[in-house]
Each structure stands twice: as structure tokens, then as C-alpha cells.
Amino acid sequence: MDSLKTDNQLLIVNRSVEYRISKELIRKIPYFEKMFPHDLKESKVNKVVLDFDEKTFKIILDWIEMGSMYIKMDHVINLCTMVDYFGMNHNLIKDCFTYFHKNFSIEHLGTVMSQVTSTSKLVNSRALDAFICHHFLKIVNTSFWLKCHSATVLKICRLNVMISSEYQVFEAIIKWLRYRFDYRKRYFAQLLASIRWCNMDPGHLSDLKKNDLVRSADLVVETCSLDEGCGCNYDRTKQNYFITIEELNTKNLRIKVLDSNFFPLVNQVFKWDNSLPLFSLPDEHVSDVVFDSGRKMIRIDWKQEKCRLLNYVEYLTYLAKVSGKFVAITGSLLLEANGKLILLRISNEFVECWSDPKAENINSIAYSFKDNFIATILDKNMYILTEALDFMTFKIDKDGELKIIKLKRLKEQLDFDDLFLTSGQAHDKVFLVDKSTGNVYCFNITTQRWSQIGLLVNYNCCKTDRKKKSSKLLTFTSAFLSIDAIRPCLKRKLNSSN
């Protein structure tokens, strides 16, 4: 920048940095153009004080002087916010938008978090928090988590992250501490306070107290009481819901959200929309639900009442984009659980399973896509039902034989093509739904037995109309959903009842 002090120059103080720039040049920015009349000599404005990211503001000044710019992830959000504030070229905002959503993955989370505010463009803090909550278990398995600043770890652990147990938050804290324990142990007690003790399983609490770091730090783990206003009133371990999706016609489908006791929370008709963006970091009112044993995904915009269906190949492509380093592979089934991807194949009566599969872990033999079994994951166990109606289970990441569990008389009532298999995180149970009859069966993990627990019905509510609604049940599955995401539907339900 030219540092000569003349009457034709403007002094810009941005935080701790001063710039002197030609008024004629700075007028290229609409924000500054309004400060100066056509005759610059009559202008009485000689100094402006701003409060913007210094690096990004320098990029803008260089751009108006040199006429070119290089967009990077470490400043794209600040740049877009600044360009919008200054009323600059709208095409630049479009370029920032395209670049960000095309390139963002979990690997960029750190640099993105440093730029995001409640009012920032491209993505705001609400959308970012929703992304972090949904992908929490995946995030804590990345190098980003190990290198996080203590304030960032504390902020994340305090969010309504999607977990099946508060012990998973404890495990994430321990993983971060162990990376540099001598330095980070000073934050141990503060981080433990982010755990919602009221909602922790007694068995997990006992395991926590036996942890070597907890004992060596001589920390006293104190449980709390809801009566004391401890802040545990929102149980983040209960964000797993059952979801049914019915195809009504070629343009619409009905999505129902049920709680752990099958009580309906949402019953809404959505429109198919293949133009619905597949951004890795969508708005906070958008959810992704994976179904058909990890072979399909549906993106739901609860606010606009639109949805988009992804087949297996499209889902894998999207998954690779979000994860950033996932190697696309051809397999029979790909499930996600506890922040890990689980690849499962059944071929010639052999079951092969990989946790977080990499290219070098996969046999070079070409496997064709087969839809000859369904599966679900509960905690660290995989449950499989084959086309021959053989039900089996094994522990993930542990060598051992498959355990075969007899379906007995239940087997005679079932047709594989009519079945959905899913699990309920809240009650440690596996559910089997027969779409042809509506029967719901439950496998109790403790007793190792199957039983019929209910019937899904789909009748019109009119007393004189006992005909079933004409629809096709696409799936019965379970998924983590944020209450904030489905809030637009809950508001519509409340308004319609008033």
C-alpha cells in the first residue's frame, strides 16, 4: 500500500492495523463510496475505524488494488460476511458459496469454527452447532479433536450432541486429555462438569470412577439432582427416534417420527425435490436419515417440507464428501455407528466385516452389490438377518464366531422382502417390522428372545371409513434427530390443534 500522506488518502484503522489508501481507489467499495462526494476534495472524512478479521480485510484491499483474489477455507466465511457488509460484487458471494459447499468436510471444522458467528454468511453458529451435534462421535475420532483448544472441547461437550450414553462424552474427553495429559490435566474437572450426570447409566458411572485418569487425578465425581437445577433437564441420550416413510404417490411421501414408546411426534407430508442441495453442512432444520440397512439415505428439510432420496451410490458419494478421507468402495452394506463406518459383506456363507474400512483392508476381488441380508448395530454388536431368515450376531472389532439365534415359529410367518430391521438405542432392543402385516417384533438383548410387541396400523380416522390408506411403506428405521431440526413440524402440529 502507498504510505504517502496526502489529502486524497483515507486512514483506515482495522483493529490493530492501520492502512492509508487512495480515496479514489477505496470508492470501488460501495460502503466507502457513500462517504465521499464526487469531488473528493470536499470530503471531510479522513479516518475510518473498523473491526474485521485483519487477514481477510487485507485480502479485500489487495483485491481492489490488484484485481484478483485467491479464496481459501481459512478465510472464506469471513470474506463472504465482509463482502456482504460492504455491499460488494454479488458474484464474489456466489463464488464463496460455491467454493465452501463444494469443499467443506469435517477436516475443515477447526478453521470454520474460528470464523462462524450467529450472523455470519454461508453458515451461522446454529447450523454449525447442529452439524457438530449430529457428527459428534465421528468428530472425536479425527485428528482435529486431538488438537482442539480446551475452550473448543468444552464448548462441544456442552452442546446437545447426539449420543446413546453420556459415557461417550466421557470417552471423548479422555481421548483428548491423553493426547497431551501433562498439560491438559488442568482442564479435567472443568470438562467433567460438561457431563450430564443425571442422565448417565449407573453401570457406566461405575466404570467411569474406575478409570485410571480419574483415579490418578484424585477427582471426586459427584452426581447431581434435577431438583437442584443442575442443567440436566434435557436428556441428550434420548434423541434417537423411530421413523416411518410412506410413499403416497410419485410426488409426495409421508414421514412420521415416533418416540421410543412409539408415540407419534410428527406426521407430515413432504414433496420429492431432487434439487434439494446436498451440502455437507446444511441449515439447522435439515436432517439426514439413513435406512435400508445403510443402503439409502433421505435428506429432509423440515421447514420447507421437502425431501430428496439418495440411492446407495449417491449415498456413498455424499459420505465421502462429509468424511473428507473416506475411500469409496463397492460392498453389500455400509452402516455408521459410534462415529465409525462398518462395511459388511456376506458371500458364500462367509461374513466379512471392516471397521472404518480403507482401500488396503478390502480384498481386491470385485463384489457385486447384493441385497440379500439386512442388518443393524446396537452398541458394539452387529445383528444380521439373511435372505434365508437366519438371525445372527457378533461383536464388532472382536474376532469370534457368529452367534446364531433361532427364530423358531416366527420364521414361518415371515417373508424376507417384507422386513425392516432396526434397533432402539433407548431400551437396548432390536426391532423387526413386517410391512405386509404391520406386525412389530422385538428381540430382547437380555433374554435373547423374540416376541411380538405391537401392530402398525394405517387407517383413516373417520368412523365410517375402515379402508387402509393407499401408500407404500418404504422403511421403518431409527435415527438421531434434533428437536431443533423438527421444531417447524412441531409448531405446525401445535397450531393445527388450536
Automatic annotation (TrEMBL):
SMART domains: BACK. Transmembrane segments: none annotated. This is BTB domain-containing protein. The keyword Lyase does not apply. The keyword Aminoacyl-tRNA synthetase does not apply. PROSITE patterns: BTB (PS50097). Residues 7-73 form the BTB domain. Keywords: Actin-binding, Kelch repeat, Repeat. It comes from the Eukaryota.
